Each structure stands twice: as C-alpha cells, then as structure tokens.
Fold:
Amino acid sequence: MFDVIIAGCGPTGAMLAAELRLHDVRVLVLEKEPEPVPFVRALGLHIRSIEVMAMRGLLDRFLERGKQYPVGGFFAAITRPAPEGLDSAHAYVLGIPQPIIDELLEEHALELGAQIRRGREVVGFAQDDEGVTVELADGERLRSRYLVGCDGGRSTVRKLLGVGFPGEPSRTETLLGEMEVGVPQEEVIAKVTEVRETNKRFGLGPFGEGIYRVVVPAEGVSDRAEPPTLEDFRRQLRAIAGTDFGVHSPRWLSRFGDATRSAEHYRVGRVLLAGDAAHIHPPTGGQGLNLGVQDAFNLGWKLAARIRGWAPDGLLDTYEAERHPVAEDVLNNTRAQMELLSTEPGPRAVRELLTELMQFDEVNRYLIEKITAIGIRYDFGEGPDLLGRRLRDIDLKQGRLYDRTHQGRGLLLDPTETLSVDGWSDRVDVIADPTAALDVPAALLRPDGHIAWIGENQQDLNDHLTRWFGKPAN
Structure:
C-alpha cells in the first residue's frame, strides 16, 4: 500500500515525488519507458524554476550542468534585454537540456526515498472511498491512497478519468531533431540569420560534438504517432532556406504541433493531474517544463498535508484553484506568441507594433515576469500587493532565506521578534531576524514560498496558520 502512485517520471513526476518524500509520504513512480528518452524538447529553466531549485537545495547541481544566459527575448522571440531590477536574486536563464533536468530531479527523488519503476505502464485504475487500485500493462495491480497523472499530453490517466480536454487542435507543426551538417559553421550562421529575418520558427544551432539542433516548420499537420524522416527535414530545409545544409547522421527526430488544451478539472476524488497531463500548448517562450515543475511544487505539500492528516478543509482543492488560472494564462500568451510568429502581413504588423511597445520598461518587465512566472499572484483575498506572491531570496542575519526552505515546511519570517507558531511548530519554522530585508512587519510563507499572511497581530497570524496549516497540535 503506497500513499501516492505517480504515473510518469518526467520533470513533473520526479519533482512531485521529491516534494512528497520531504514529508515522509510513501511514493511510487511508474514510468512506461524502460530507459530515459534522449529527446531534448526543453532547453532550460526560467527564473521561478531556478528559484524552486534553490529553495530545495538543488541549484548548485543544476548550475554545474548548465550555463547562465541573460534574461530577454522570450516573448515571440522579440529581442529586448531585460529591464534592470527584476525581483529575483536569480535573474538569469539557465540553459540545461531536458534529459539532464530529468536526470537531476530523478536523482533527487531517489535520494529522498521515492521508488521509481521503469517499463511499467499504467493502463487502468479504479478509485473508492479508501484509495485507488492501479492496473499495469503486465496485469499487476497496485494500491495507493492517491494517484497523480504526470503522464504527458496524451495522458492515459486523464483519459481514463474522463476529464474533458477542451481547446484547439494543431494548426501548424514543427520538425525538431539533432543531426550533423555537411557545410561550414559560418555558412550555417549566415543562412539562419537571413531566414530568421522573416521566419522565427526556423533555426539551426550547434549542440556540441558537431551536432546541430534543427528546428524547421513542417509541410503540414500529420499523425504525430509517425516520426518524421531525415528526408522530411531535408525537404523542408530546402523549401524554406534553399539548402538542406547537407544534414546527416541524426541522433533523433521528432515533431510537435501547436495544439492548445487545458483539462477541465485537475482533481476528481483521489486522482489528480499535473504538468502536460493537465495542459498542453506550443513551446513558444519555453514555459512548458517550467509550468509542470511549478505544478508539482504547488501540489506536493498540499497532498502531503492531506496524507499526514493535518490539511485544513479545502486545502487540496486550492491546487486546481491556483494552478488552473496560471495554466490558462500560459495557454493564452502562447496563442498570442504563435500569432506573432506568423509570416502573414497582419501578424507581422502587430509584431512590429509590439516590438516598439516593448521599448517601454514596464511593458517589457510585464512580459518577462509573465514568461518567467515571477509575476504570479495567487488570490488569497484582500491585502498588500505582496500577499499571494512568492518571496524572493533575501539576505538574513545568517545566510539567505532559501537556505532555510530545503525541508519544504512553512516559514514565519518575523523581523519584529514578537510572534510565535506554538501549536504549529511541527509544520512551520520561525526566523526572528530584525535585519531581514522585508517591506512588511512579518510574513508567513507556505512551503512553496508564496506569502500567505502579512501583519504583526498574533491572533490574526493564528487564524491564517489554521487556514493553511490546519488545527494546532495538542
């Protein structure tokens, strides 16, 4: 009997497993693929995901395997440097291929005690008042208290759950792969620069060891179950660039569309959805993997609280209430970006206008905060602007704030040195630090770093501790 079975060991599933293990939840991750896939669909982490790694003590591992790049040029590939003073101690992009992200998060989950079984495909389940019976392709049946589908855009869990997935099918498709080229690098650079003047969905970039990452619009929308061939790439490269660059010896070939869909519900009883199982969208802006990791960061502590028995009524329902609007916003901004990538005259005119508007600092800042997810504000009711937002990594008298969040507990940051979490100390830590660079008297942080309360009154704090962390211990 497990507490939680997770279907899918991509970045969302691995992150969720680790978050649950921080609270001693018995976790089993089932992954249908026998080995990690080599496809590099995502290329890095945005600011909020970098902060998430810092909050769990993982950032050094990621920095060792990645490369830092300046923030900017995300929205529809419109080149604009970031405005000064972004609200983060980690205001950069971390370039790191998805297989390495997957590897590091899986390693983290295993270190914390999660079980991961590969080559095990979920094909059915049935839930009742006590738990979920999960059926595998080989006929084995497993029992858990909850099941979470982190099994991608074609999620078996979502389909079996009967949750609607409304949205739009793909209208365009893009070929993506890694291969060698047969012409000098300077020739590739010159041609790519020329083509991208009008076609932002085109690119060839060196990926190390003589390998290039090739992105080229497909001829039409096809059956994605059929992988593209090298000849498909050659044909489209010639059609768009006038040359196929002598591409050969592919490592892998894939395709993706611009379908945009969102699950009607993220939870039905004891079964939940996260990551691409809950939402799919075009990869413009590089938000997909980051969105899934942040889903897991929001869900993990809430599901653990339910299993450990201290969750207040309705806490688990806040997962959908908070994350569904975030996903809808990502879907809408990727819809807008796809329009701006069109080579048609109308969208090109709008793109030129938006390029001019982004010269205004506040417009540029707004779009960057949206893409990097540092502008998210959950609706916790009326209060100061900081309420519902995540708190940046700030200096403390001893170290930094995120160094105190590795265990996934709540945190009271109290510069007044007058407040207490007596009754909740098994779930919430206290930092009484008059030197903390905080613009409010005191703040209560949830395990995901979002500010749940601001004030200086003990009774008001107690009410909010009860709201987020349940009844005080006897």
